[in-house]
Amino acid sequence: MADRRMCLDGEESKECHRLLQLTNCRLVRGHRLIRDDLWVRDGRIVNPEPIFFDEQATAHRRVDCNNAIIAPGYIDLQINGGYGVDFSYDTETIEEGVEKVACGLVKSGVTSFCPTLVTSPSQSYHTILPRIPKAVPNGAGILGIHAEGPFINPQKKGAHPESCIRTIDKSQGLSTLESTYGSLDRIKILTLAPEKVTDQQVIGQLVDRGITVSLGHSMASLSDGEQAVQQGATLITHLFNAMLPFHHRDPGLVGLLASDAVPQGRTVYFGIISDGVHTHPAALRIAYRTHPQGLILVTDAISALGLEEGVHHIGQLPLEVKQGKAFIAGTETLCGSIAPMDECVRIFKKATDCSIVYAIEAATLHPAKCLKIEKQKGTLDFGSDADFIILDDELRVISTWIAGECVHRTAAK
Question: How far apart are CA 181 and CA 167, in angstroms?
Fold first, then answer.
């Protein structure tokens, strides 16, 4: 007991670890807002009961949250860059670029993300993938890389350069992907067009390696999508964008939201861009009401995130930001979002009239479940990582915390 008391006075001992207590707050926990304190120790959220009764310890530091909301940190599964950095294009300064974006994202409440590489030359993957850092001090955590292409359908290429699009060689199968990327070790999500996969084993082999297979940039029929899901695909890349529009006789990939061919017990997740540009509010409502448990908010943000209007780059193509939208330069083709995640959450809530808790979970719990990391990320459950955000009632970020340390605080107005 003496060692513990000494620790409470500020001197460390091997038996005791510093405790942080956040009080006067509402927690997003158990799919609802509850009034409770949040306790943090050693970078994790902890149950205070054994601390009170077994250790008879009290907090070393208390933070009064003034009745604010505490939510898990946002998780962005699709982001191409930001703050002047393009993960696919800035190959010479990739380490510094990822660090800059990771530190910038905490301002919008993002505490974990998947740097996303659009369709690129094979050599670019070989150069970039090994150099993306696994962690950034005081920045959002890096969950792995999202490889969006090059195994996509050129008819739905969007902003992806057609000259770099590839097909999966049926005779080579998985070896085609390994030779393209150099290594699959850092890839967490891989977007492909299912109708272009002729080797029926490839999707299952990717899933066996812990890679989430996502369907997108595709002309796939519903049957193509169902077959890919039965083989292990569990995600759809930016629903409604770069895919066949819904048709009542063959709803395409959109039909997976209501398919009865999805294996029992499996959830098909889908990313959706609620930036006020890419997806009409009515389309957001259709997706939300049809398949709420699978909805994941993604930014699909590009290098112009956080920058003023002008000419920038995405992958191998120049882009232009004008009137709050990003286009392939010289065209009217949209090529990515410039809305931060906290804005996407607010836009989505307004468009769908969903609950505060649901809007938050669409950017926290749902992406964590999709990647099967919900025991560590995406909740405020005991034992999970202490990556959380403090929000006001308008869902504006007051502060962002990673591993129990405040890494961003919004200046008071």
Answer: 13
pLDDT one-digit tens code per residue, 43-62: 999 999 988 777 777 889 99
Active site residue 381: no
Q: In whole angstroms, what is the distance from residue 16 CA to residue 247 CA?
A: 61
* Core vs surface per residue 206-232: b (16+ CB within 10 A) or e: bbeeebbbbbbbbbbbbebbbbbbebb
Tell me how far CA of residue 75 lies from CA of 71, 78, 105, 353, 366, in angstroms.
Answer: 12, 9, 10, 21, 9
Closest listed residue to residue 76, CA positions, set 152, 142, 160, 148? 142
Structure tokens at 406: 């405040």
What is the Cα–Cα distance from 351 to 346, expressed in whole angstroms? 9
Tell me how far apart the alpha carbons of residues 73 and 110 are, in angstroms, rounded to a whole number: 6
Nearest to 314 by CA among 305, 323, 306: 305
Computed over every residue of the chain, the mean pLDDT equals 92
Cα 11 from chain centroid (whole Å): 39
Catalytic one of 300, 342, 385, 387: 300
Cβ proximity of 142 and 133 under 8 Å: yes
6-44, pLDDT tens digit by residue?
333 333 433 347 899 999 999 999 999 999 999 999 999
The whole-model pTM stands at: 0.93
Across-strand partners of 337?
Answer: 301
Using one digit for the tens of pLDDT, what is the confidence trace for 288-314? 999 999 999 999 998 889 877 888 776
3-state secondary structure of 391: strand
For the residues 216-244, what does the mean pLDDT come to?
97
Q: Identify the three-state secondary structure at position 134.
A: coil
| Rounded distance between C-alpha atoms, residue 58 and residue 60, angstroms | 7
Q: Which residues pair with 76 in a beta bridge?
A: 113
